[in-house]
Here is the input.
Amino acid sequence: MTPAAPLPAPAPPPAADPAPALSVVVPVLNEAENVIPLLDEIEGALAARGGFEVLFVDDGSTDGTAAALAPRLCDRVRLVRHAERRGQSAAVRTGVRNARGAWIATLDGDGQNDPADIPALLDRRDAGLSLVAGLRRVRNDSLSKRLASRLANGVRDAILRDGCRDSGCGLKLFRRDAFLDLPAFVALHRFLPALFLSQGHGVAYVDVGHRPRRAGTSKYGNLRRALVGILDLAGVFWLQRRAVRPTAITEDRPGP
Here is the structure.
């Protein structure tokens, strides 16, 4: 009797996808016309930079933003959604919590931040930095927005002394673990330089571009932002003064 041929060895299980080095987090609210052009630009800007993922956070859109992204979703392009609008800071934090990269790049979903500037932020990293923040060279916004922003940044820097002339720029790069150690509150994204500095982290700034909005409308008003910003500034000033900075620790272990 001829012995049966041995069964082939089972195929090894597929290797798990390695975590990307960079996660690009994009908070969006009713940006159906902007998300695909923006995604194309992000992928083009980072094509030569190794592993990355793009994570859109839909903050309760009602205009079909999620449907516009659906055909492009894959392991590298992801979408998470809030059931209701929670605000930009909450969307950024949701994105960071769900991101897989050790470094996070953020940019606004309206297309005004240029993804081509992300490599310049990546190149600025060094061992002593936890945040590289973009500073818009020229703002392509209405005169009222530019004047309100200039006033707000001047007041904020005079009080918090973070050396940042444009804390509202959405284009930033930071360490995921350092961000998740920061206190969470509604206006977090507008005070990242001051908060990173208060925790003893290194911060650097890079000049970046700014473009006119391609489609859709802004979701913010100057008066409401100014009124809320006064309370936020007072709160961050208190946090800055009361912050407990991380310290290096050692652990004594029993001898042999």
